[in-house]
Each structure stands twice: as structure tokens, then as C-alpha cells.
Design goal:
190 residues, mainly alpha, single chain, 65% helix, Four Helix Bundle (Hemerythrin (Met), subunit A)
């Protein structure tokens, strides 16, 4: 029973992003600019689909190479801990989306003239949305502990770090000294 909870929390994470994007669209803001500045971003899409199918195969015993989805452990207390991690990450993610206000984007929007967000979760981490995302998938790995999840978690972490570096370059150019001073006060992750 508990094993299903993170599986149902994952769509909530996606729905929050889509709702936020739709809300911004009403204000004339295109929030999903993924792949606009770098077409190599699209390489992640088939990998994400493979992950989603693999995760679904893990939970519902669908056809998938068993070696990739066989669990490393099955310990009740670890399942509870992972559910707590996923739930806290989901809440953190939602708070961060709210803190973003009209500045939220999926990808780099080079035409944005929004202010630099430094309050709320951004006072704790320069990249709170990514921290929430990675911690959510750490929770997913803990409960579904298999080779597929560890590979995806590593891939996701590398892709997120790559995106953070690209965003930092953009933000330094876009906000100049204001961003440099912010970087001195707040860490990249936590």
C-alpha cells in the first residue's frame, strides 16, 4: 500500500508545474521555454519516458528487464522514510513555485525582465526548485531501490547540475552585480 504513495505524488509534481505555467500564460507569460536556448535539452525526453515506464513496471509488474527493476531492499521503515522525503520535497517544491511568482520558467528565458528572486526558499538555496526535485527522486529511489532508479537519479542530477551552471551564466549576465552578491550570501544547493 505504502509503495504506491510516491508513485501518485509524482504526477502531483508535474501537475503543479503545468498549473503554474497555465496561470502565467493567463498573464501573457510563456513559462515553458525548455529547449529554446539549447536543442540538446530534448535528449532528456526519451530518457524520462523510459524512467516513467520503468517506474510503472516496477510497481505494477509490467514487462521490463527484471535486473533493472529488482529492488535492493524491502524494509517497511525505509519505505516510510522515503514517503516522508517525497512529501516534504513536494511541499518544498510547491512553496518554491509560489515564491517564484511570475518569474517561474522551465528553461532559460533570455527575454525575461523579471526581478531576481532572493526571498522565501531562495534565501536558503539559489536553486530550491532543483533541490526539491532531486530530493523527491532520492525518496523515489529509496522506496523503489533498483538499478533503473539509481541510473535515473544520477542522470537527473548531472542534467540538473548542467542546467544550473547554464542558468548561473545567464543570471550573471542578466542581473550583474546583484546576482554576484546574492551568490556570496546563498549556496548553490543547500
Amino acid at each position: 500500500m505504502f509503495k504506491y504513495i510516491p508513485l501518485f505524488e509524482l504526477p502531483i509534481l508535474i501537475i503543479m508545474v503545468l498549473i503554474r505555467s497555465a496561470m502565467l500564460r493567463r498573464h501573457g507569460i510563456k513559462a515553458i521555454v525548455f529547449g529554446m536556448t539549447d536543442k540538446t535539452d530534448y535528449v532528456i525526453i526519451p530518457i524520462v519516458f523510459l524512467f516513467f515506464y520503468g517506474l510503472t513496471a516496477t510497481v505494477f509488474n509490467l514487462p521490463f528487464p527484471i535486473i533493472l527493476i529488482k529492488s535492493f531492499w524491502d524494509i517497511f521503515i525505509i519505505d516510510i522514510i522515503s514517503i516522508i522525503i517525497c512529501t516534504i520535497s513536494l511541499i518544498w517544491f510547491g512553496i518554491t513555485l509560489k515564491t517564484f511568482g511570475k518569474s517561474f520558467r522551465v528553461g532559460i528565458d533570455e527575454n525575461s525582465n523579471d526581478r531576481l528572486i532572493i526571498n522565501g526558499t531562495f534565501a536558503i538555496s539559489r536553486n530550491p526548485i532543483y533541490v526539491g526535485f532531486i530530493s523527491f527522486f532520492i525518496g523515489m529511489f529509496i522506496i523503489y531501490s533498483n538499478i533503473l532508479l539509481i541510473i535515473f537519479l544520477l542522470f537527473l542530477t548531472i542534467m540538473i547540475h548542467r542546467q544550473i551552471i547554464r542558468e548561473e551564466t545567464f543570471l550573471k549576465k542578466h542581473y550583474g552585480n546583484e546576482y554576484v552578491e546574492y551568490c556570496k550570501k546563498v549556496r548553490r544547493y543547500i
